[in-house]
Amino acid sequence: MKECIRTGKKEQGIYHLTVPTGGGKTISSMAFALEHAVVHELKRIIYVIPYTSIIEQNAEVFRNILGTDQVLEHHSNAEYDGDEFQMLRLATENWDKPVVVTTNVQFFESLFANKSSRCRKLHNIAGSVLIFDEAQMLPFDYLLPCVKVIEELVQNYGCTAVLCTATQPSLQELFLSKIIKGEICPDVRKQFLAFRRSHMVIDRELDKASLIHRLKNEHQALCILNTRDQVQEIYEELCEEEGVFHLSTYMYPEHRRRKLQAIRASLQAGKRCLVIATSLVEAGVDLDFETVYRELAGLDSMIQAAGRCNREGKREAEESLVHIFWFAKEEQKRNDGLKLAIRVSEQILEEYEDITSPEAIEGYFKRLHYFQGDSLDKKGIIKKLDEQRIDTIPFASVAKEFQLIENDTKAIFIVDTPEAVGLKDQLRYGIRSRAVMRAVGRYSVNIYEKVYGNLLAEDALEVLDEQIAILKRAEMYTEAEGLKVKAERGDAVFF
Questions:
Q1: How many angstroms separate the CA atoms of 228 and 276, rounded?
Q2: How many CA atoms within 13 Å lie on the side-chain side of 378?
Q3: Strands 220-224, 291-295: parallel, antiparallel or unpaired by DSSP?
Q4: For residue range 167-220, what is the model confidence (pLDDT) as tens digits?
Q5: Residue 273 · residue 42 · CB < 8 Å
Q6: What distance in Å separates the CA atoms of residue 195 and residue 317, rounded to the nearest whole number?
Q7: DSSP letter string, 212-232
Q8: Cα 352 from Cα 345, distance rounded (Å)
Q9: Are the C-beta atoms of residues 340 and 220 closer than 8 Å to each other?
Q10: Please, what's the b/e burial string for 222-249 (b: 16 or more CB within 10 A of its CB; e: otherwise)?
Q11: CA distances from 296 to 64, 223, 301, 327 (A)
Q12: pTM here?
């Protein structure tokens, strides 16, 4: 914290803040931003976060420190409908608050948008401190456009940017060297050693039967797998055991929130608690387990998973084990999105004794960026902007193609609570207000179009319009597992 305040007095540019899990980077980065804003007379602080699942807790921290009136949340789950919220609704359009907490999607898509409603805030981004939390989550497919827009804001619009994470993504070579001001943390290696709260064990190949046997003998353990299919299969082998929970994106957001509350309560009470989950619990979710099992994935994901082991530092690091493993080929589930990250992680495992070291992390990201090559800008956004005169820039096509969340999913509305029943009635009457659609989003699961088509074929959906369909078959959604479909093949599972 002291170093953040001291560095806040320095010149503007791009800074890195590399802090291990549990090191307090949320408050420390804000301390830098406040000091920096005062020294350089900057207008506001914009805190950019990859997940809506953690944005609310960070915004609450800032409200407790700075006051409710000083902080604006702007993301898909923030509701400001009604006369009493008129000022806040206007503030979301122009970001006219001292501190704005928003998402990668809102921030970057606004900067590449061509609609006046999304561009209205752009003048208020100038002259701001921009903090990018969990910077390793900047989307690889759009990494170059994101880097270039940060560079432009710093070089020509009076902004300072801070890239915060426990796994710094080695972006130095992508930025202009003259605007990079360096690392805020004075001794990253020392910090990582001081905050090391777990010990990573490379178990290598592990069959499912062995994994299940191990989990049955754990008291409080988290197991993170790469596909929803694997999560469902392992959970179903353990669900008769005491204190076993399932978490995946096939649960609607409000359901996941309830599950996380129940999990936290079990952990804090010292009860047996086994959680089988996808990667959604890795970054920013405040859970503390005795043991973590992580299927081989990207190095940043594995280190983030380790941050859920002995998070509060109540046990010795040597006794708090993070097991890295992979299934035999015949038991693996296909996940094309992770193939390259896994391949690079395998190289790092072979070359570095300590894969959590800053050197290993830097090596991982440098190789990943190298192998990604042109796909760091898969839509060719930079080329379209660089090769045009100002009067011929294709603003509309760029805005259409720069979509951090691809539109290849469909929303399925789950009606299993009294609030959801009320929302269903409003939807059937044709009500599509912003407040209604945001509330519906809290009870909706996004699925790929192939899965959606299979559910339609089985007459499992009531289609209201292109935006939303209601799940008709209640038995297909359970409190234990959420939506029961085969994630990879898109086959529905009926009871």
A1: 10
A2: 12
A3: parallel
A4: 888 788 888 888 999 999 888 888 777 778 899 999 989 999 999 999 999 999
A5: no
A6: 10
A7: HHHHHT-SEEEEE-SSHHHHH
A8: 10
A9: no
A10: bbbbbbbbbbbbbbebbeeeebbbbbbb
A11: 38, 12, 9, 9
A12: 0.85
